[in-house]
């Protein structure tokens, strides 16, 4: 979807149309982060994850809007209902993005570009929103293609054009290449896919570890990852950004306790128990750190989650740190058949 949160706000409130809208943050520019920005705001350089203070400096006339996540989720469900008219092989990535495998082609259209065009048209006519689509033979190339002609774009990269396309692609656009890795690559004189292609698989692995094997394949347009409609949940987490930075462990614990209650509620509704608690810290300089701690037996209750959060916090040096965001998550979930295993039952007996 194109500037999804902001586009929903502009659709629902006529006074926001053609205006620089910033969803998230605060009008005072103090605390908070930009969740998304309308294209009118993006012309001023405002981007997602930017501090609201920076956003306001770039565009003093920007209108800050508090996020309505319940509305965005409802709209996302409507979008997926449209997807399901054409295929049931849908892998959601977020509220506003998904992979679709249209091999199934429920309506017998026969051409992926025509299917993408029909989906885009339905979203526009029924929901009053625009979407951009990328069409190709695998997930990686389709993802890159979907970003090429935003907003309201449609890009096809066929099999014969993939390698040439990948050779021209800047390294920072490659899946799994973050800022640190991109900087390392550029320091080595690797600026594009063509530069990466000049290195052997062994050389890429030596310089970048296991991801080197993936880079070797992807620069040649090889991506065999399937679209996974029933992708297994690996973790569940909650987080919050604060209007004022947290500077004491006491204030952090208070906020973490609130987050823990929300997390326990989500886990209970999902029927999931896990062993590993992770706490996420985003500091005032936007540096992000995570710390984890695992227990032997799975759990999902707020008491044990918060006890584990305390252990993590006690082991984390937060001296002179100003915390802008906190998050709590649970992962390492028990398998479906694990609950009835003798070992699991024995652990539960010892535990209680």
From TrEMBL:
Upper lineage: Bacteria, Pseudomonadati, Bacteroidota, Chitinophagia, Chitinophagales
An example Gene Ontology CC term for this record: cytosol
Active site: 97
Residues of the UmuC domain: 1-178
Cofactor(s) required for function per UniProt: Mg(2+)
Function: Poorly processive, error-prone DNA polymerase involved in untargeted mutagenesis. Copies undamaged DNA at stalled replication forks, which arise in vivo from mismatched or misaligned primer ends. These misaligned primers can be extended by PolIV. Exhibits no 3'-5' exonuclease (proofreading) activity. May be involved in translesional synthesis, in conjunction with the beta clamp from PolIII.
Signal peptide region: none
Record's keyword annotation contains RNA-binding: no
Cofactor annotation remark: Binds 2 magnesium ions per subunit.
Single Gene Ontology BP annotation: SOS response
Gene that produces this protein: dinB
Cellular compartment(s): Cytoplasm
Residues carrying the site annotation Substrate discrimination: 5
GO function terms (MF aspect): damaged DNA binding; DNA-directed DNA polymerase activity; magnesium ion binding
Name of the protein in its database record: DNA polymerase IV
Residues that coordinate or bind Mg(2+): 96
Record's catalysed reaction(s): DNA(n) + a 2'-deoxyribonucleoside 5'-triphosphate = DNA(n+1) + diphosphate
EC code: 2.7.7.7
InterPro entries, A to Z: DNA/RNA_pol_sf (IPR043502), DNA_pol_Y-fam_lit_finger_sf (IPR036775), DNA_pol_Y-fam_little_finger (IPR017961), DNA_polymerase-Y (IPR050116), DNApol_IV (IPR022880), IMS_HHH_1 (IPR053848), Rev_trsase/Diguanyl_cyclase (IPR043128), UmuC (IPR001126)
Principal place of residence: cytoplasm
Coiled-coil intervals: none
PROSITE patterns xref list: UMUC
